[in-house]
Amino acid sequence: MKVLLHVCCAACAIGPQEDLARQGHQVAGFFYNPNIHPFIEFRRRLKALKVLQERIPLPVTYVEDYGLGEFLASVRWTGPTRGERCEDCYRLRLERTARHAAEGGAEAISTTLLSSTRQDRETIVRIGHECARAHGVEFLPADWRPLSEEGHRRARQMGLYLQSYCGCVFSEWERFRDTAEHVYRGPGPLQDSSARD
Description:
48% of the residues lie in helices and 10% in strands. The protein has 197 residues and is α/β, with parallel strands linked by helices. It has one domain (2-146, 153-182): HUPs (Rossmann fold), CATH 3.40.50. Strands 3-2-1-4-5 form a five-stranded parallel β-sheet, with helices on both faces. Strand 4 (108-111), helix 5 and strand 5 form a beta-alpha-beta unit. Helix 1 crosses helix 6 and helix 4 runs parallel beside helix 5. The longest helix is centred in the middle third of the chain and has 23 residues, at 82-104.
C-alpha cells in the first residue's frame, strides 16, 4: 500500500518508517508543520529531517514555508486549554496530509506523532480517521510509542538535532517559563544590556 507519513521531526520518523516498510508498504514522508516556532527551531527540524533522509530510504515532500500566521489563524490560542489547542494543531497537519495523499495517489496516511509518549494518541487517531475519510484515504493508527526511545537513541548517534518541546510557541513557553538557566547564561540576575560596552 502507498502510505504518506506525516513527519513531525527526524527522530520520530525512524521507527515508523522502518515499521511501515517492514509491513511491505511503500512509504513517503510529508513534512508539514506550521506549528513549529520560532523560525530557527523550524529550520533545525527541517534540516535534521533532510540529514536523516540522506541515511534512510525515505522520499520526503517538504512544505518549507514558515507557517506562523497559518498556525495562529487555525488554533484556539486566546485562553484555550492545551487539549483544544493541540486538537486544532493535529487537525491542521493531518487534514493537509490527507489532502496531499489523495492528490498524490497514496492510499493511506499516518503520522509520526503516534510515536510520541507526550501527545494525545486518542485524539490524533480520531482526527486522523476523520481527515482521511474526508479525502478518500485510510488512516493507519499504529502505536509506535515503544519505538520512540530507540529512535531517539539512533538520532543522537547520527548527530541529529533533538528538540526539547513539541514545537508550538505555547509549548515552548510551557517548557522554559520556569527556567532562568535556559534564558540567561547563568543562574545570576538579569543584567541591564545598556550597561555593556
